[in-house]
Design goal:
Elements lengths: L3 E6 L6 H6 L2 E4 L2 E4 L2 E4 L8 H9 L4 E4 L3 H13 L3 E6 L7 H15 L5 E5 L4 H16 L4 H11 L3 E6 L4 H5 L5 H6 L5 E7 L5 E8 L1 H23 L3 H5 L3 E5 L3 H12 L6 E5 L2 H7 L4 E6 L7
Parallel strand pairs: 1-2, 1-6, 6-7, 11-12
Antiparallel strand pairs: 3-4, 3-5, 8-9, 8-13, 9-10, 11-13
């Protein structure tokens, strides 16, 4: 029997069926576009392709954090069942959703002092956040306690690397995720900005590559370097390290994601999962984003 309930946000680039089949409670963020506000429902209300088409048409999408009330309901329900809670939150460097979860946790904890509610700031997003959630599912199913699971996630999270390229930086600039100067440089003809998520869970522009295909290969090469360094530093067998499930998320550019997956397959990375990026994060990256995630050695500019 599970010792704790697992709660995550809607920003892990997975399906409604994924949450249900893995027993994960979902605290959804929301977005507003073209006069319509949607609590993220994995493309049910507004299909992903249609969402990105609206962005291509020049429509603007604004986003809202997950609500304290949703967390209160999940946490209280678990405690009333005599269960603990592990909440794995969307990076506090990108959203106030994690702080909202912490507020709810403190309130419920006062009413159930004998229960454990652990809030883990993933400092991750999208597919990287999903890697951490999948580890939480694995540990829960092994019978680990909430504290054991949360401690393991804290130790892992900064080794999850986020390697990103976008068509341009204007969406990220409008959402306050990068500076205006970076956005202007990112509009130069043929130049593709490269971004990483730092240890504070915030996006940083670290490089500019000429050409789309070259930018995708640049992401793949950095992941391969990360795997090499992880094996050397931690003594992890190469076969085990390279069999990990690497994830690619994309903003309605499937062919580019498939190209990157093929690039990795040809270099000994067999397990690559491709997903469409969620609508909240997609609101800030815009269409054309490709993001690569895996467990590497360290987060860094590359």
């Amino acid at each position: 029997m599970n010792q704790f309930i697992l709660v995550a946000n809607s920003t892990i680039d997975e399906t409604a069926a994924y949450y249900t089949s893995n027993g994960i409670r979902c605290a959804s963020l929301s977005f507003t576009i073209d006069g319509m506000t949607v609590k993220e429902d994995f493309g049910a209300t507004l299909p992903f392709h249609d969402f990105f088409e609206k962005l291509r048409e020049g429509k603007t999408s604004t986003t809202s954090q997950a609500q304290v009330g949703d967390y209160l309901a999940f946490f209280r329900d678990a405690c009333e069942q005599g269960l603990d809670v592990v909440y794995v939150g969307f990076s506090s460097g990108l959203s106030g959703s994690f702080d909202a979860g912490c507020i709810a946790a403190r309130e419920v904890q006062e009413d159930f002092p004998g229960r454990t509610i652990r809030c883990v700031d993933s400092l991750c997003a999208a597919g990287g956040e999903c890697i951490l959630v999948e580890e939480a599912v694995r540990l829960r199913d092994l019978g680990k306690t909430a504290d054991e699971c949360a401690d393991a996630l804290e130790a892992l999270k900064l080794h999850i690397v986020h390697l990103v390229t976008v068509d341009d930086l204007n969406h990220l600039w409008r959402g306050g995720r990068v500076s205006r100067t970076s956005a202007v440089l990112g509009t130069l003809v043929g130049i593709k900005p490269v971004i990483y998520l730092n240890d504070a869970g915030k996006l940083e522009v670290c490089h500019k590559v000429r050409g789309r295909r070259q930018s995708l290969e640049y992401l793949g090469d950095e992941l391969l370097r990360q795997l090499d360094e992880r094996e050397a530093a931690l003594g992890i067998p190469a076969a085990e390290n390279r069999a990990q499930h690497v994830r690619i998320s994309h903003g309605d550019c499937e062919a580019d994601a498939q190209y990157l997956a093929g690039y990795l397959h040809a270099r000994g990375i067999p397990n690559v999962e491709i997903r469409m990026i969620d609508t909240v994060i997609g609101s800030h990256t815009g269409p054309g984003v490709v993001a690569l995630f895996g467990v590497g050695y360290e987060r860094r500019a590359f």
